[in-house]
Amino acid sequence: MNTPPILTAGGPGIPASLLRPTLPDPAQPRARYDAVVVGAGVAGLAFALRLPEGTRIALLTKGALGESNTRYAQGGLAAAVGPDDDPALHEADTLAAGAGLCDADAVRRLVEGGPAAVEWLLAMGTRFDRDPDGTLALGREAAHGRRRVLHAGGDATGAEIERALVAKVRERPAITVLERAYAVDLVQDGGRCTGLVAELGAASEPVVLRAPVVVLAAGGAGQLWATTSNPLGATADGLAMALRAGVAVADLEFAQFHPTVLRLPDDEPFLVSEAVRGEGAFLRDADGERFMPAAHPLAELAPRDVVARAIQRQMGLDGADHVALDLAHLDPDAMRARFPTIAAALRRRGLDLATDRIPVAPAAHYFMGGVVASPEGRTSLPGLLAIGEAACTGVHGANRLASNSLLEGLVFGMAAADAFEGSRVWGLGSGDGVVEPWSAPKSGTLPPNPSAAVALRSRVQRAMSRHVAVVRDAAGLAAAGAEIAAVAAAAAAMPGDGRAVHGLRSMALAASAVVAAAYRREESRGGHFRLDFPDSDPALGGRHLLFGGGEDGWRYGGLG
Ligand code: SIN
Protein backbone atom coordinates (compact mmCIF):
# COMPACT_ATOMS: atom_id res chain seq x y z
CA MET A 1 0.00 0.00 0.00
CA ASN A 2 1.34 3.47 -0.92
CA THR A 3 2.29 5.92 1.80
CA PRO A 4 0.04 9.00 1.57
CA PRO A 5 1.92 11.79 -0.20
CA ILE A 6 3.13 14.67 1.90
CA LEU A 7 2.29 18.11 0.63
CA THR A 8 5.27 20.42 0.88
CA ALA A 9 4.42 23.40 3.05
CA GLY A 10 5.40 26.98 2.23
CA GLY A 11 7.07 27.90 -1.03
CA PRO A 12 5.71 30.12 -3.75
CA GLY A 13 2.01 30.89 -3.46
CA ILE A 14 -0.71 32.62 -5.47
CA PRO A 15 -0.85 36.38 -4.78
CA ALA A 16 -4.25 37.14 -3.22
CA SER A 17 -4.61 40.34 -5.27
CA LEU A 18 -4.84 38.17 -8.41
CA LEU A 19 -7.66 35.97 -7.15
CA ARG A 20 -10.35 38.67 -7.07
CA PRO A 21 -12.96 38.18 -9.82
CA THR A 22 -14.65 41.01 -11.66
CA LEU A 23 -18.18 41.15 -10.29
CA PRO A 24 -21.01 41.94 -12.68
CA ASP A 25 -22.64 45.29 -12.43
CA PRO A 26 -26.45 44.97 -12.64
CA ALA A 27 -26.47 47.95 -14.98
CA GLN A 28 -24.29 46.19 -17.51
CA PRO A 29 -26.10 45.17 -20.68
CA ARG A 30 -27.12 41.54 -20.77
CA ALA A 31 -28.00 38.97 -23.35
CA ARG A 32 -29.35 35.51 -22.86
CA TYR A 33 -28.40 32.31 -24.69
CA ASP A 34 -28.82 28.56 -24.32
CA ALA A 35 -25.05 28.23 -24.03
CA VAL A 36 -22.06 30.56 -23.92
CA VAL A 37 -18.89 29.00 -25.34
CA VAL A 38 -15.50 30.63 -24.74
CA GLY A 39 -13.04 29.55 -27.42
CA ALA A 40 -13.42 28.51 -31.05
CA GLY A 41 -10.84 25.76 -31.47
CA VAL A 42 -11.83 22.17 -32.18
CA ALA A 43 -13.43 21.64 -28.73
CA GLY A 44 -15.63 24.76 -28.76
CA LEU A 45 -16.64 24.26 -32.39
CA ALA A 46 -17.44 20.56 -31.89
CA PHE A 47 -19.57 21.42 -28.85
CA ALA A 48 -21.48 24.13 -30.71
CA LEU A 49 -22.06 22.10 -33.87
CA ARG A 50 -23.09 18.95 -32.08
CA LEU A 51 -26.06 20.70 -30.46
CA PRO A 52 -29.35 20.84 -32.40
CA GLU A 53 -29.54 23.52 -35.12
CA GLY A 54 -31.77 25.97 -33.29
CA THR A 55 -29.74 26.09 -30.07
CA ARG A 56 -28.90 29.72 -29.30
CA ILE A 57 -25.20 29.82 -28.67
CA ALA A 58 -22.84 32.72 -28.10
CA LEU A 59 -19.42 31.62 -29.38
CA LEU A 60 -16.65 33.93 -28.20
CA THR A 61 -13.21 34.03 -29.74
CA LYS A 62 -10.39 36.40 -28.88
CA GLY A 63 -9.31 36.95 -32.47
CA ALA A 64 -10.98 36.31 -35.80
CA LEU A 65 -13.01 33.12 -36.15
CA GLY A 66 -10.61 30.43 -37.41
CA GLU A 67 -7.60 31.72 -35.48
CA SER A 68 -6.95 29.28 -32.63
CA ASN A 69 -4.36 26.86 -31.30
CA THR A 70 -6.14 24.12 -33.28
CA ARG A 71 -5.29 25.86 -36.52
CA TYR A 72 -1.56 25.44 -35.87
CA ALA A 73 -1.69 21.69 -35.15
CA GLN A 74 0.44 20.08 -37.82
CA GLY A 75 0.96 16.39 -37.09
CA GLY A 76 -2.62 15.35 -36.87
CA LEU A 77 -5.34 13.55 -35.07
CA ALA A 78 -4.72 10.13 -33.50
CA ALA A 79 -7.49 7.53 -33.83
CA ALA A 80 -7.46 3.75 -34.02
CA VAL A 81 -8.89 3.45 -37.55
CA GLY A 82 -6.14 1.45 -39.28
CA PRO A 83 -6.62 -2.23 -40.19
CA ASP A 84 -3.89 -3.32 -37.75
CA ASP A 85 -5.09 -1.05 -34.96
CA ASP A 86 -7.54 -1.20 -32.11
CA PRO A 87 -8.64 1.30 -29.44
CA ALA A 88 -7.05 -1.00 -26.82
CA LEU A 89 -3.63 -0.50 -28.46
CA HIS A 90 -4.18 3.25 -28.59
CA GLU A 91 -5.20 3.13 -24.93
CA ALA A 92 -2.00 1.26 -23.98
CA ASP A 93 0.19 3.83 -25.76
CA THR A 94 -1.68 6.74 -24.13
CA LEU A 95 -1.30 5.23 -20.66
CA ALA A 96 2.40 4.50 -21.20
CA ALA A 97 3.12 8.09 -22.27
CA GLY A 98 1.09 9.45 -19.32
CA ALA A 99 3.66 8.11 -16.81
CA GLY A 100 1.28 6.78 -14.17
CA LEU A 101 -1.02 9.78 -13.96
CA CYS A 102 -3.71 9.04 -16.55
CA ASP A 103 -7.33 8.50 -15.57
CA ALA A 104 -7.99 5.06 -17.05
CA ASP A 105 -11.73 5.60 -17.61
CA ALA A 106 -11.21 8.92 -19.36
CA VAL A 107 -8.53 7.39 -21.59
CA ARG A 108 -10.87 4.56 -22.57
CA ARG A 109 -13.64 7.05 -23.41
CA LEU A 110 -11.17 9.00 -25.52
CA VAL A 111 -9.76 6.15 -27.60
CA GLU A 112 -13.08 4.36 -28.03
CA GLY A 113 -14.68 7.60 -29.18
CA GLY A 114 -11.97 8.19 -31.80
CA PRO A 115 -13.32 6.27 -34.82
CA ALA A 116 -16.87 7.71 -34.51
CA ALA A 117 -15.46 11.20 -34.02
CA VAL A 118 -13.46 10.83 -37.24
CA GLU A 119 -16.67 9.83 -39.05
CA TRP A 120 -18.36 12.95 -37.66
CA LEU A 121 -15.50 15.16 -38.84
CA LEU A 122 -15.72 13.61 -42.31
CA ALA A 123 -19.47 14.30 -42.31
CA MET A 124 -18.68 17.92 -41.37
CA GLY A 125 -16.59 18.16 -44.55
CA THR A 126 -13.05 17.64 -43.26
CA ARG A 127 -10.77 16.47 -46.07
CA PHE A 128 -8.13 14.16 -44.59
CA ASP A 129 -5.26 12.93 -46.77
CA ARG A 130 -5.88 9.58 -48.42
CA ASP A 131 -3.68 6.82 -49.82
CA PRO A 132 -3.87 6.08 -53.56
CA ASP A 133 -6.47 3.35 -52.87
CA GLY A 134 -8.74 5.93 -51.19
CA THR A 135 -8.27 4.79 -47.60
CA LEU A 136 -7.36 7.37 -44.95
CA ALA A 137 -3.58 7.95 -44.91
CA LEU A 138 -2.09 7.28 -41.49
CA GLY A 139 1.18 8.68 -40.17
CA ARG A 140 3.31 7.61 -37.23
CA GLU A 141 4.44 9.76 -34.33
CA ALA A 142 6.52 9.26 -31.22
CA ALA A 143 5.38 6.65 -28.69
CA HIS A 144 2.60 5.34 -30.96
CA GLY A 145 2.91 1.60 -31.61
CA ARG A 146 0.90 1.88 -34.85
CA ARG A 147 0.48 4.27 -37.74
CA ARG A 148 -2.69 6.00 -36.52
CA VAL A 149 -2.28 9.73 -37.09
CA LEU A 150 -4.72 11.18 -39.61
CA HIS A 151 -3.45 14.26 -41.37
CA ALA A 152 -4.64 16.79 -43.91
CA GLY A 153 -2.74 18.83 -46.47
CA GLY A 154 0.33 16.88 -45.29
CA ASP A 155 1.08 18.98 -42.21
CA ALA A 156 -1.91 21.36 -42.10
CA THR A 157 -4.28 19.10 -40.19
CA GLY A 158 -5.52 21.59 -37.60
CA ALA A 159 -6.05 24.24 -40.27
CA GLU A 160 -8.24 21.86 -42.31
CA ILE A 161 -10.33 20.78 -39.31
CA GLU A 162 -10.79 24.41 -38.27
CA ARG A 163 -11.75 25.36 -41.87
CA ALA A 164 -14.40 22.66 -42.11
CA LEU A 165 -15.96 23.38 -38.70
CA VAL A 166 -15.90 27.16 -39.13
CA ALA A 167 -17.70 26.76 -42.48
CA LYS A 168 -20.45 24.77 -40.73
CA VAL A 169 -20.72 27.32 -37.91
CA ARG A 170 -21.26 30.05 -40.50
CA GLU A 171 -24.27 28.09 -41.80
CA ARG A 172 -25.96 28.21 -38.37
CA PRO A 173 -27.87 31.45 -37.75
CA ALA A 174 -28.55 30.46 -34.14
CA ILE A 175 -24.83 30.59 -33.37
CA THR A 176 -23.82 34.17 -32.62
CA VAL A 177 -20.09 34.44 -33.28
CA LEU A 178 -18.50 37.17 -31.17
CA GLU A 179 -15.05 37.84 -32.63
CA ARG A 180 -12.36 39.84 -30.86
CA ALA A 181 -14.29 39.20 -27.66
CA TYR A 182 -12.47 38.97 -24.38
CA ALA A 183 -13.82 36.76 -21.60
CA VAL A 184 -13.26 38.52 -18.28
CA ASP A 185 -14.84 36.39 -15.55
CA LEU A 186 -17.48 33.83 -14.71
CA VAL A 187 -20.75 34.92 -13.10
CA GLN A 188 -22.12 32.82 -10.24
CA ASP A 189 -25.52 32.86 -8.54
CA GLY A 190 -26.53 30.48 -5.78
CA GLY A 191 -23.59 28.16 -6.30
CA ARG A 192 -24.05 27.86 -10.07
CA CYS A 193 -22.32 29.43 -13.01
CA THR A 194 -24.98 31.52 -14.72
CA GLY A 195 -23.03 33.59 -17.17
CA LEU A 196 -19.91 35.33 -18.28
CA VAL A 197 -18.58 38.88 -18.09
CA ALA A 198 -17.01 39.73 -21.45
CA GLU A 199 -15.69 42.67 -23.43
CA LEU A 200 -16.97 42.60 -26.97
CA GLY A 201 -14.67 45.03 -28.67
CA ALA A 202 -11.20 46.43 -28.12
CA ALA A 203 -12.55 49.44 -26.27
CA SER A 204 -15.93 48.39 -25.01
CA GLU A 205 -17.24 48.16 -21.49
CA PRO A 206 -17.97 44.65 -20.21
CA VAL A 207 -21.34 43.02 -20.79
CA VAL A 208 -22.92 40.04 -19.07
CA LEU A 209 -23.90 37.06 -21.21
CA ARG A 210 -26.34 34.81 -19.36
CA ALA A 211 -26.88 31.11 -20.06
CA PRO A 212 -27.67 27.93 -18.14
CA VAL A 213 -24.29 26.62 -19.24
CA VAL A 214 -20.96 28.33 -19.83
CA VAL A 215 -18.30 26.29 -21.61
CA LEU A 216 -14.61 26.98 -21.12
CA ALA A 217 -12.95 25.86 -24.35
CA ALA A 218 -10.39 28.62 -24.03
CA GLY A 219 -7.35 26.63 -25.12
CA GLY A 220 -3.84 26.50 -23.85
CA ALA A 221 -1.21 28.30 -21.87
CA GLY A 222 1.91 28.35 -24.07
CA GLN A 223 2.22 32.14 -23.90
CA LEU A 224 3.06 31.89 -20.20
CA TRP A 225 6.54 31.04 -21.52
CA ALA A 226 8.88 33.19 -23.63
CA THR A 227 9.36 30.50 -26.30
CA THR A 228 6.33 28.56 -27.44
CA SER A 229 4.80 26.92 -30.46
CA ASN A 230 1.43 28.45 -29.49
CA PRO A 231 -0.14 31.55 -31.07
CA LEU A 232 -0.46 34.84 -29.17
CA GLY A 233 -3.93 34.04 -27.87
CA ALA A 234 -2.83 31.03 -25.77
CA THR A 235 -2.58 32.95 -22.49
CA ALA A 236 -4.26 30.55 -20.03
CA ASP A 237 -7.47 32.62 -19.83
CA GLY A 238 -9.64 29.63 -18.94
CA LEU A 239 -7.35 28.62 -16.12
CA ALA A 240 -7.22 32.17 -14.74
CA MET A 241 -11.01 32.55 -14.79
CA ALA A 242 -11.42 29.20 -13.05
CA LEU A 243 -8.90 30.15 -10.37
CA ARG A 244 -10.69 33.44 -9.70
CA ALA A 245 -14.02 31.58 -9.48
CA GLY A 246 -12.65 29.01 -7.00
CA VAL A 247 -13.23 26.12 -9.42
CA ALA A 248 -11.04 23.04 -8.86
CA VAL A 249 -7.96 22.86 -11.11
CA ALA A 250 -5.26 20.18 -11.25
CA ASP A 251 -1.97 18.98 -12.74
CA LEU A 252 -0.71 22.53 -13.29
CA GLU A 253 2.90 21.37 -12.94
CA PHE A 254 2.61 19.32 -16.12
CA ALA A 255 3.42 21.38 -19.20
CA GLN A 256 4.66 19.69 -22.34
CA PHE A 257 7.66 21.11 -24.18
CA HIS A 258 7.71 20.15 -27.85
CA PRO A 259 11.19 18.87 -28.65
CA THR A 260 11.57 20.37 -32.12
CA VAL A 261 10.62 24.02 -32.47
CA LEU A 262 12.67 25.99 -34.99
CA ARG A 263 15.37 28.05 -33.26
CA LEU A 264 16.85 30.83 -35.38
CA PRO A 265 18.27 34.06 -33.96
CA ASP A 266 15.72 36.91 -33.90
CA ASP A 267 13.01 34.77 -35.46
CA GLU A 268 9.60 33.61 -34.23
CA PRO A 269 9.52 30.01 -32.97
CA PHE A 270 7.93 27.68 -35.53
CA LEU A 271 6.79 24.10 -34.88
CA VAL A 272 8.56 21.34 -36.81
CA SER A 273 6.12 18.48 -36.42
CA GLU A 274 6.90 15.30 -34.57
CA ALA A 275 5.61 13.55 -37.69
CA VAL A 276 8.92 14.53 -39.31
CA ARG A 277 10.70 12.23 -36.86
CA GLY A 278 7.85 9.78 -37.41
CA GLU A 279 8.94 9.61 -41.06
CA GLY A 280 12.52 8.86 -39.98
CA ALA A 281 14.33 12.17 -39.33
CA PHE A 282 17.35 12.07 -36.98
CA LEU A 283 18.45 14.44 -34.23
CA ARG A 284 22.15 15.33 -34.30
CA ASP A 285 24.47 17.08 -31.84
CA ALA A 286 27.01 19.81 -32.61
CA ASP A 287 29.44 17.17 -33.97
CA GLY A 288 26.79 15.76 -36.28
CA GLU A 289 26.30 12.59 -34.20
CA ARG A 290 22.93 11.08 -33.29
CA PHE A 291 22.41 11.23 -29.52
CA MET A 292 18.91 9.74 -29.10
CA PRO A 293 19.83 6.03 -29.54
CA ALA A 294 21.90 6.27 -26.33
CA ALA A 295 19.08 8.07 -24.51
CA HIS A 296 16.14 5.71 -25.13
CA PRO A 297 15.44 2.39 -26.93
CA LEU A 298 12.93 4.18 -29.20
CA ALA A 299 15.57 6.82 -30.07
CA GLU A 300 13.97 9.80 -31.89
CA LEU A 301 10.53 8.20 -31.36
CA ALA A 302 10.75 8.11 -27.56
CA PRO A 303 7.97 9.90 -25.63
CA ARG A 304 8.04 13.65 -26.02
CA ASP A 305 9.24 14.46 -22.50
CA VAL A 306 12.19 12.08 -22.91
CA VAL A 307 13.23 13.61 -26.24
CA ALA A 308 12.86 17.18 -24.91
CA ARG A 309 15.07 16.42 -21.90
CA ALA A 310 17.67 14.63 -24.02
CA ILE A 311 17.84 17.66 -26.34
CA GLN A 312 18.10 20.04 -23.38
CA ARG A 313 20.96 17.96 -21.96
CA GLN A 314 22.72 17.79 -25.32
CA MET A 315 22.44 21.55 -25.78
CA GLY A 316 24.13 21.94 -22.39
CA LEU A 317 26.94 19.55 -23.37
CA ASP A 318 27.40 21.32 -26.70
CA GLY A 319 27.13 24.82 -25.21
CA ALA A 320 24.55 25.52 -27.93
CA ASP A 321 20.97 26.82 -27.99
CA HIS A 322 19.82 24.13 -30.44
CA VAL A 323 20.44 20.69 -31.89
CA ALA A 324 19.92 19.71 -35.54
CA LEU A 325 17.08 17.85 -37.21
CA ASP A 326 18.33 15.94 -40.25
CA LEU A 327 16.26 14.46 -43.10
CA ALA A 328 19.09 14.18 -45.64
CA HIS A 329 18.95 10.35 -45.66
CA LEU A 330 15.25 10.40 -46.64
CA ASP A 331 13.65 10.85 -50.08
CA PRO A 332 13.76 14.67 -50.56
CA ASP A 333 10.74 14.97 -52.85
CA ALA A 334 8.63 12.72 -50.63
CA MET A 335 9.56 14.79 -47.56
CA ARG A 336 8.79 18.14 -49.21
CA ALA A 337 5.46 16.74 -50.40
CA ARG A 338 4.57 15.25 -47.02
CA PHE A 339 5.38 18.46 -45.09
CA PRO A 340 4.53 21.34 -47.43
CA THR A 341 3.75 23.91 -44.69
CA ILE A 342 6.99 23.28 -42.82
CA ALA A 343 9.01 23.15 -46.06
CA ALA A 344 7.56 26.51 -47.17
CA ALA A 345 8.17 28.15 -43.77
CA LEU A 346 11.78 26.96 -43.84
CA ARG A 347 12.24 28.05 -47.47
CA ARG A 348 11.16 31.58 -46.47
CA ARG A 349 14.01 31.47 -43.96
CA GLY A 350 16.55 30.20 -46.51
CA LEU A 351 16.54 26.57 -45.36
CA ASP A 352 15.68 23.38 -47.27
CA LEU A 353 13.73 20.89 -45.15
CA ALA A 354 15.07 17.91 -47.09
CA THR A 355 18.76 18.74 -47.28
CA ASP A 356 19.71 21.27 -44.58
CA ARG A 357 20.30 20.61 -40.90
CA ILE A 358 17.37 22.34 -39.21
CA PRO A 359 18.17 24.07 -35.87
CA VAL A 360 15.58 23.07 -33.26
CA ALA A 361 15.10 23.32 -29.50
CA PRO A 362 12.29 22.52 -27.03
CA ALA A 363 9.55 25.13 -26.49
CA ALA A 364 6.31 25.26 -24.47
CA HIS A 365 3.65 23.46 -26.46
CA TYR A 366 0.77 21.91 -24.52
CA PHE A 367 -0.69 22.22 -21.02
CA MET A 368 -1.74 18.91 -19.50
CA GLY A 369 -3.26 20.58 -16.43
CA GLY A 370 -6.35 22.73 -16.28
CA VAL A 371 -9.90 22.84 -14.95
CA VAL A 372 -10.82 19.48 -13.42
CA ALA A 373 -13.51 18.04 -15.70
CA SER A 374 -15.27 14.77 -16.48
CA PRO A 375 -15.26 13.51 -20.09
CA GLU A 376 -18.60 15.37 -20.46
CA GLY A 377 -16.91 18.55 -19.28
CA ARG A 378 -18.54 18.73 -15.85
CA THR A 379 -16.50 20.79 -13.38
CA SER A 380 -16.73 21.46 -9.63
CA LEU A 381 -19.04 24.41 -10.42
CA PRO A 382 -22.51 23.40 -11.65
CA GLY A 383 -23.33 25.13 -14.92
CA LEU A 384 -19.67 25.39 -15.93
CA LEU A 385 -18.19 22.93 -18.43
CA ALA A 386 -14.54 22.71 -19.46
CA ILE A 387 -13.37 20.94 -22.62
CA GLY A 388 -10.22 20.65 -24.72
CA GLU A 389 -6.87 21.98 -23.54
CA ALA A 390 -8.51 24.17 -20.88
CA ALA A 391 -9.74 21.02 -19.12
CA CYS A 392 -7.90 18.45 -17.05
CA THR A 393 -9.73 15.15 -17.55
CA GLY A 394 -6.71 12.96 -16.83
CA VAL A 395 -6.46 11.64 -20.39
CA HIS A 396 -2.92 12.94 -20.82
CA GLY A 397 -1.59 12.15 -17.38
CA ALA A 398 1.87 13.60 -16.89
CA ASN A 399 2.73 13.66 -20.59
CA ARG A 400 0.37 13.81 -23.57
CA LEU A 401 0.75 11.32 -26.38
CA ALA A 402 1.31 13.13 -29.69
CA SER A 403 -1.85 13.96 -31.65
CA ASN A 404 -4.19 13.08 -28.80
CA SER A 405 -5.11 16.73 -28.23
CA LEU A 406 -7.22 17.33 -31.34
CA LEU A 407 -8.85 14.01 -30.52
CA GLU A 408 -9.60 15.11 -26.96
CA GLY A 409 -11.12 18.41 -28.04
CA LEU A 410 -13.27 16.59 -30.56
CA VAL A 411 -14.42 13.55 -28.54
CA PHE A 412 -15.04 15.39 -25.28
CA GLY A 413 -16.48 18.48 -27.01
CA MET A 414 -19.01 16.15 -28.63
CA ALA A 415 -19.60 14.24 -25.37
CA ALA A 416 -20.24 17.49 -23.48
CA ALA A 417 -22.77 18.62 -26.08
CA ASP A 418 -24.53 15.24 -26.04
CA ALA A 419 -24.75 15.34 -22.24
CA PHE A 420 -25.97 18.95 -22.28
CA GLU A 421 -28.57 18.06 -24.86
CA GLY A 422 -29.89 15.49 -22.40
CA SER A 423 -29.45 18.09 -19.69
CA ARG A 424 -32.86 17.60 -18.14
CA VAL A 425 -31.19 14.54 -16.61
CA TRP A 426 -28.70 16.68 -14.78
CA GLY A 427 -30.95 19.64 -14.26
CA LEU A 428 -29.42 22.45 -16.25
CA GLY A 429 -32.53 23.23 -18.23
CA SER A 430 -32.13 24.15 -21.85
CA GLY A 431 -32.37 27.90 -21.68
CA ASP A 432 -35.75 29.55 -21.57
CA GLY A 433 -34.68 33.10 -22.21
CA VAL A 434 -35.22 35.24 -25.22
CA VAL A 435 -32.24 36.81 -26.89
CA GLU A 436 -32.36 40.36 -25.71
CA PRO A 437 -31.34 43.09 -28.11
CA TRP A 438 -27.77 44.17 -27.66
CA SER A 439 -27.13 47.53 -26.14
CA ALA A 440 -24.52 49.07 -28.34
CA PRO A 441 -21.22 48.78 -26.51
CA LYS A 442 -20.31 52.11 -24.97
CA SER A 443 -16.96 53.43 -25.97
CA GLY A 444 -14.67 52.80 -23.05
CA THR A 445 -11.18 53.95 -22.37
CA LEU A 446 -8.22 52.24 -23.94
CA PRO A 447 -5.91 50.30 -21.63
CA PRO A 448 -4.07 52.87 -19.49
CA ASN A 449 -0.56 51.97 -20.52
CA PRO A 450 -0.39 48.89 -22.69
CA SER A 451 3.37 49.06 -23.13
CA ALA A 452 3.92 48.85 -19.35
CA ALA A 453 1.62 45.82 -19.24
CA VAL A 454 3.54 44.21 -22.14
CA ALA A 455 6.87 44.77 -20.37
CA LEU A 456 5.55 43.15 -17.20
CA ARG A 457 4.12 40.27 -19.21
CA SER A 458 7.58 39.60 -20.70
CA ARG A 459 9.01 39.42 -17.20
CA VAL A 460 6.55 36.61 -16.39
CA GLN A 461 7.43 34.81 -19.64
CA ARG A 462 11.18 35.09 -19.09
CA ALA A 463 10.94 33.83 -15.51
CA MET A 464 8.85 30.86 -16.65
CA SER A 465 11.24 29.96 -19.50
CA ARG A 466 14.27 30.30 -17.28
CA HIS A 467 13.03 28.45 -14.20
CA VAL A 468 9.89 26.45 -15.02
CA ALA A 469 10.76 24.76 -18.30
CA VAL A 470 12.00 21.29 -19.32
CA VAL A 471 13.78 20.92 -15.95
CA ARG A 472 13.12 22.71 -12.64
CA ASP A 473 14.38 22.82 -9.05
CA ALA A 474 13.27 24.41 -5.78
CA ALA A 475 15.66 27.37 -5.99
CA GLY A 476 14.59 28.24 -9.54
CA LEU A 477 10.91 27.84 -8.70
CA ALA A 478 11.30 30.10 -5.67
CA ALA A 479 13.03 32.69 -7.89
CA ALA A 480 10.22 32.47 -10.47
CA GLY A 481 7.63 32.81 -7.68
CA ALA A 482 9.33 35.94 -6.36
CA GLU A 483 9.53 37.52 -9.82
CA ILE A 484 5.88 36.79 -10.56
CA ALA A 485 4.84 38.15 -7.15
CA ALA A 486 6.71 41.38 -8.00
CA VAL A 487 4.88 41.55 -11.34
CA ALA A 488 1.57 40.88 -9.55
CA ALA A 489 2.22 43.78 -7.16
CA ALA A 490 3.03 46.09 -10.07
CA ALA A 491 -0.06 44.88 -11.96
CA ALA A 492 -2.30 45.43 -8.93
CA ALA A 493 -1.07 49.02 -8.75
CA MET A 494 -1.76 49.72 -12.43
CA PRO A 495 -4.80 51.89 -13.00
CA GLY A 496 -7.72 50.76 -15.10
CA ASP A 497 -9.30 47.45 -16.05
CA GLY A 498 -8.49 47.42 -19.74
CA ARG A 499 -7.79 44.21 -21.58
CA ALA A 500 -4.02 44.55 -21.40
CA VAL A 501 -3.99 44.99 -17.63
CA HIS A 502 -6.60 42.32 -17.01
CA GLY A 503 -4.72 39.95 -19.36
CA LEU A 504 -1.48 40.64 -17.52
CA ARG A 505 -3.10 39.88 -14.17
CA SER A 506 -4.54 36.66 -15.60
CA MET A 507 -1.17 35.56 -16.92
CA ALA A 508 0.53 36.32 -13.61
CA LEU A 509 -2.21 34.41 -11.79
CA ALA A 510 -1.93 31.33 -14.01
CA ALA A 511 1.88 31.43 -13.92
CA SER A 512 1.96 31.74 -10.13
CA ALA A 513 -0.32 28.71 -9.84
CA VAL A 514 1.95 26.69 -12.20
CA VAL A 515 5.01 27.65 -10.15
CA ALA A 516 3.30 26.81 -6.84
CA ALA A 517 2.24 23.39 -8.15
CA ALA A 518 5.68 22.63 -9.63
CA TYR A 519 7.27 23.55 -6.30
CA ARG A 520 4.94 21.29 -4.34
CA ARG A 521 5.37 18.14 -6.45
CA GLU A 522 8.69 16.88 -5.15
CA GLU A 523 9.35 14.17 -7.73
CA SER A 524 9.95 13.78 -11.45
CA ARG A 525 7.21 12.40 -13.67
CA GLY A 526 6.41 12.95 -17.35
CA GLY A 527 6.66 16.62 -18.28
CA HIS A 528 7.60 17.67 -14.71
CA PHE A 529 11.31 17.00 -14.11
CA ARG A 530 12.82 18.22 -10.83
CA LEU A 531 16.63 18.26 -10.83
CA ASP A 532 16.47 18.10 -7.02
CA PHE A 533 14.05 15.13 -7.07
CA PRO A 534 15.05 13.26 -10.24
CA ASP A 535 13.10 10.04 -9.50
CA SER A 536 9.38 9.31 -9.50
CA ASP A 537 7.87 8.89 -6.04
CA PRO A 538 5.69 5.75 -6.04
CA ALA A 539 3.41 7.40 -3.46
CA LEU A 540 2.57 10.10 -6.03
CA GLY A 541 1.61 7.71 -8.84
CA GLY A 542 -2.01 8.37 -9.76
CA ARG A 543 -2.15 11.32 -7.33
CA HIS A 544 -3.14 14.66 -8.83
CA LEU A 545 -2.23 17.95 -7.19
CA LEU A 546 -5.45 19.95 -6.96
CA PHE A 547 -6.09 23.57 -6.07
CA GLY A 548 -9.43 24.97 -5.03
CA GLY A 549 -10.77 21.84 -3.43
CA GLY A 550 -9.10 21.74 -0.03
CA GLU A 551 -8.99 23.82 3.12
CA ASP A 552 -5.60 25.35 2.45
CA GLY A 553 -6.10 25.34 -1.28
CA TRP A 554 -3.68 22.60 -2.34
CA ARG A 555 -4.18 18.87 -1.85
CA TYR A 556 -3.32 15.58 -3.49
CA GLY A 557 -6.24 13.47 -4.65
CA GLY A 558 -8.11 11.91 -7.54
CA LEU A 559 -9.86 13.83 -10.30
CA GLY A 560 -13.24 12.14 -9.80
C1 SIN B 1 3.26 17.95 -33.90
O1 SIN B 1 2.87 17.94 -35.07
O2 SIN B 1 4.37 17.56 -33.57
C2 SIN B 1 2.34 18.45 -32.85
C3 SIN B 1 1.22 17.53 -32.70
C4 SIN B 1 0.83 17.41 -31.28
O3 SIN B 1 1.29 18.19 -30.45
O4 SIN B 1 0.09 16.50 -30.96
List segments where confidence is low: pLDDT < 50 over at least 5 consecutive residues.
Answer: 424-447
Q: What is the fold named in CATH at topology level of the domain at 255-363?
A: Flavocytochrome C3, Chain A, domain 1
CATH superfamily of the domain at 255-363: Succinate dehydrogenase/fumarate reductase flavoprotein, catalytic domain
Overall mean pLDDT stands at 91
Between the first and last Cα atoms, what is the distance in angstroms? 20 Å
Bound molecules: succinic acid
Number of DSSP-assigned strands: 22
Second-tier CATH architecture of the domain at 255-363:
Alpha-Beta Complex
What kind of assembly state do the chains in view correspond to?
Answer: single chain
Instruction: Record the strand order, biggest sheet.
Output: 7-3-2-11-19
User: How would you classify the helix and strand content by structural class?
Assistant: alpha/beta
Largest sheet entry = 5 strands, parallel
Number of contiguous helices: 14
Percent of residues in beta strands? 15-25%
Please tell me how large the radius of gyration is: 22 Å
Protein topology:
Elements: E1 30-32, E2 35-38, H1 42-50, E3 57-60, E4 77-78, H2 87-97, H3 104-123, E5 138-139, E6 149-150, H4 157-170, E7 175-178, E8 182-189, E9 192-199, E10 207-210, E11 214-216, H5 237-245, E12 249-250, E13 255-262, E14 270-271, H6 274-278, E15 282-284, H7 292-295, H8 304-318, E16 323-326, H9 332-338, H10 340-348, E17 358-367, E18 370-372, E19 384-386, E20 391-392, H11 404-421, H12 450-467, H13 474-492, H14 499-520, E21 544-550, E22 553-557
Parallel strand pairs: 1-10, 2-3, 2-11, 3-7, 11-19, 18-20
Antiparallel strand pairs: 4-6, 5-6, 8-9, 9-10, 12-18, 12-21, 13-14, 13-17, 15-16, 16-17, 21-22
Helix pairs in contact: 1-4, 1-11, 2-3, 3-11, 5-14, 12-13, 12-14, 13-14
This protein binds succinic acid.
Succinic acid binds at residues 73-75, 273-275, 366, 402-403, 405.
